[in-house]
Protein 1
Amino acid sequence: MTVAARPATTAPASPAGPTGPTRPTGLAELSAEIQQFYARQMQLLDDGEAEAWAETFAEDGVFAANAHPEPFTGRPAIAAGARRATDDFAARGIRRRHWLGMLSLEPKDEHTVFVRSYAQVIETARGGQSALRASTTCADLLVRRDGRWLVLDRRIHRDDLD
């Protein structure tokens, strides 16, 4: 059996401005940028860095979840709520990991993106087995301010709650 060789292909050169690569403009580049944002954000929370995690929200940001009676509004309230939760889990010897996937991006303009994703929360008790704690949808309105993405509005809906 003879296999025909395929012609060699070359990738197009990446666009570059006078001082280097240009800013991402396509959906693929935006998607990679947003995924990097979420990876950093969730790792901050999972590492117990509640205040640094809250800094990824706009100063006037909102965190609402159907598991909480009222939304947390404003970065200080978001930080305080995250600090209480991370301290509680640490005191009980529970490590949490948040996994976001199936991101769907809907750019509104060059500074605003609506992102819907699935999020799973995995808990591991010290010396125990890991278990899926929650399956949720996450709906975020992200805004670019001062060159970085921030959550302006986050809506979490746990699948097991009405």
Protein 2
Amino acid sequence: MLIDAVREGDWEAIGQIEREAGVSRWGERALRQEASRSGVVFLVAREGGEVCGFIVGRVVADEVEVLNFAVGGRWRQRGVGHALFSALLGRAAERGARRVVLEVRASNTAARRLYERFGLKVVGRRRDYYSGPVEDALLMCGNIIP
């Protein structure tokens, strides 16, 4: 598996993964705009040339915020999410980040377990943060371990 920066030809696959995952509804336009912003790290995972997941984070000062993260259905439970999250933390650390913060759906136990393996802890709850369906977000944060 290769973790790489997003490329122009990746957008259709990224959009499909986002729709399939059903966890966010940014859409291609918003994702493209985010990719062009200062401090943003936008990575994709590729297997045999196929985009199988993506992650977007924004580094501000000594912190990286995970903005969007999804793995294609047939690629889940194969280490893709772990590889993407690890790569994001590495790139963010290179840019001076020492902490990571994110929101995750309260019901997304697989994602929560992944973040906990990286040392993140739940530090708050945002009531009714997500729509479709309405659900609380758990705020998680932790240190980036070099």
